[in-house]
């Protein structure tokens, strides 16, 4: 009998991407993940034959028209901003992953969700694998989240978590966090790829079998991505991110994946002394309250998901004696501002090469879309000329290198929000060029 070649038998395989090797390695050479190479008995060329399983009557495939969706209707979490992002509420049997930076307020948000759900009479099980029950109790007292139907347990063993679910029989389960729960059936330490995969698959299977929603907290890495194997994001039904600037009290929740609704909604919260408060209309948070017009300011309308938010851009231009003038930005892209300064100098004749330029947004909001170009340019030009722009003027438009103003998406929605906030003059692509828009802005 011919001897099997080395290429036909590959005893080690990456559980993340499927890369195979003849010897064990700590890091996969294909996907660069650590701790995912495991020994396997799989051999190339061997085909296993499985006997078909006889399906019971309740498991037989049915015509799609005969399947009802009554069990998949959204039910409100009690937090309108959270329901907005989820597509109307929480779906029974859904697996929802919430990720965010440490200290941003993930646990506070989910404790509030648990409290609101428990206040309706539903039994809620909150599993904390990072804190003691006493620490969570203190936070619940501070935020007013104490409810008789809210059950709390500190467990970091998967079997114990399943036992708590069997004992309480909750209508909602929250696990904080999935990276700190370990299973005896998987190798590695808690938080490793194999452990996260095993814990997530087991909890999601329980959620589907018992038709109860489960909310999982996920850690993030240094670059902001969700820690653990990529499979985790594929397994869950909804992936949400909770973020905000540490220097401000505003927090935003967004959906990166949603099997039950859109992914372009944004929920807004404000962190205060007693927890998180919903901000149903955040439009006024990003505008200054100066009663008189001040030079170096201009308002634009930015889109956060489907929401139109008026945001004020402020600029300051100061003469500089340094050979390299400073360009300082906060809330806007520095490279985009540098390009706009070059366009203003070349196309509008505004000399800025001998001046320090500072550009910032009000309220700590970050503008990433090019629709804010025109407002930034007008604010800088206003500061350079020391001419104020009227309070009722709003600017929306992308500026090209040729000095032209390009139209932006969702212009009608931006205009409607500007009108609702009391702005009567909208400067946009109808001004044709940035130079014409500047002339109109300064009257």
UniProtKB/TrEMBL annotation:
A Pfam entry, by short name: ChlI
Gene3D superfamilies, per the entry: 3.30.230.10, P-loop containing nucleotide triphosphate hydrolases (3.40.50.300)
Record-annotated RecA family profile domain positions: 71-220
Family matches, as SUPFAM superfamilies: P-loop containing nucleoside triphosphate hydrolases, Ribosomal protein S5 domain 2-like
Main function: DNA-dependent ATPase involved in processing of recombination intermediates, plays a role in repairing DNA breaks. Stimulates the branch migration of RecA-mediated strand transfer reactions, allowing the 3' invading strand to extend heteroduplex DNA faster. Binds ssDNA in the presence of ADP but not other nucleotides, has ATPase activity that is stimulated by ssDNA and various branched DNA structures, but inhibited by SSB. Does not have RecA's homology-searching function.
Protein family per UniProt: Belongs to the RecA family. RadA subfamily.
Protein name: DNA repair protein RadA
Organism: Naasia aerilata
Lineage of the organism: Bacteria, Bacillati, Actinomycetota, Actinomycetes, Micrococcales
Encoding gene, per UniProt annotation: radA
